[in-house]
Design goal:
5-stranded antiparallel sheet; Immunoglobulin-like; elongated
């Protein structure tokens, strides 16, 4: 057997009492810095690491004053610890202990947290004479509500006497009296009511020519949505935006045109054409069909319809 003087012993976090001695391990102190962070159906506990601890236990209850004797025990955890499957609206009380081979510490100070569902704002705008109800909303008076994430809300539009429901916009669309909104985020819905005696006209927008582009304004987003029904006398402002590689040529049948802007006064059902070009005279085959049945021709501006043929760009 080697003499004791030839043995080198390195001991961390304990005192070595001679060659034949032993390492003294003590029970860890109680955890400090414990915090509870509630979430949607869950909670997160965090705490400061305790010197000498090898694991931690959590004791919880739904009444205050939880102890290691009264709480429900969760063993062998570490910080941060996430507990799922909790009931939203219920307050949970917790203490934490530190553990090693020598035993379990005293309990930490008690912390608590109340899980809550994530909510988003649903806002309703009521245009005209009528109400919108559903999901805690009764607009005209209460026009917004906090709705749980993922919830589906059914809104119902009810026109007042002498009015009719014209349609939804925003997170809802169509002209049916009800719509459903799924709350994946904050949402805004507009319900429009009009007088029962109001006359409506339809504006139709068509994009033509050898170039491409879009026309937007007042519910129009052409070429995907190219019609809009509006009350008689409504003024609609349209804006033409050419696509990359194209330029805007001119408007056809616009009431008042100024460059890429066209203003239509809706006193009847109307159509307006936005002509886009690529800037050259090539690609003129099919100009007549592009003009939607009107007479047409090709100029330096592209495919131009009807009386604009031969005109200035």
């Amino acid at each position: 057997m080697l003499p004791c003087r030839n043995v080198t012993v390195v001991v961390l976090a304990a005192a070595f009492a001679g060659c034949g001695g032993s390492i003294a391990i003590t029970v860890p102190s109680a955890p400090t810095g414990v915090t509870a962070t509630p979430g949607n159906g869950q909670g997160t506990l965090s705490w400061t690491a305790v010197s000498g601890a090898t694991s931690y236990n959590i004791y919880w209850a739904t009444t205050p004053g939880v102890t290691t004797a009264t709480g429900t025990k969760i063993t062998g955890v570490s910080s941060p610890y996430v507990q799922t499957g909790l009931s939203n609206g219920t307050t949970y009380y917790c203490v934490v202990t530190a553990v090693n081979s020598a035993g379990e510490s005293a309990a930490s100070s008690q912390v608590s947290g109340t899980p809550e569902a994530t909510t988003y704002a649903l806002s309703v705008q009521d245009n005209g004479n009528g109400t919108v109800s559903g999901g805690g909303i009764n607009c005209g008076t209460t026009c917004s509500a906090a709705i749980a994430q993922g919830a589906q809300v059914t809104l119902t539009a009810t026109a007042a006497s002498g009015s009719t429901f014209a349609g939804w916009s925003g997170a809802c669309s169509g002209t049916g009296s009800t719509c459903q909104v799924t709350m994946a985020g904050a949402e805004t819905v507009t319900a429009t009511f009009v007088s029962s005696t109001t006359t409506y006209y339809t504006l139709t927008v068509l994009t033509i020519g050898i170039g491409t582009g879009t026309v937007t304004g007042n519910g129009i987003s052409c070429p995907s949505d190219c019609t809009e029904s509006v009350a008689s006398g409504t003024s609609i402002t349209l804006t033409a935006v050419p696509a990359s590689g194209s330029t805007f040529a001119l408007w056809e049948f616009c009431d008042s045109a100024n460059g890429t802007t066209c203003i239509m006064s809706m006193t009847a059902n109307k159509k307006v054409y936005a002509s886009f070009t690529t800037g050259g005279q090539g690609g003129c085959d099919g100009c007549l069909s592009a003009c939607q049945g009107l007479s047409g021709c090709c100029t330096g501006c592209g495919c131009i319809c009807q009386n604009a043929c031969g005109g200035s760009c």
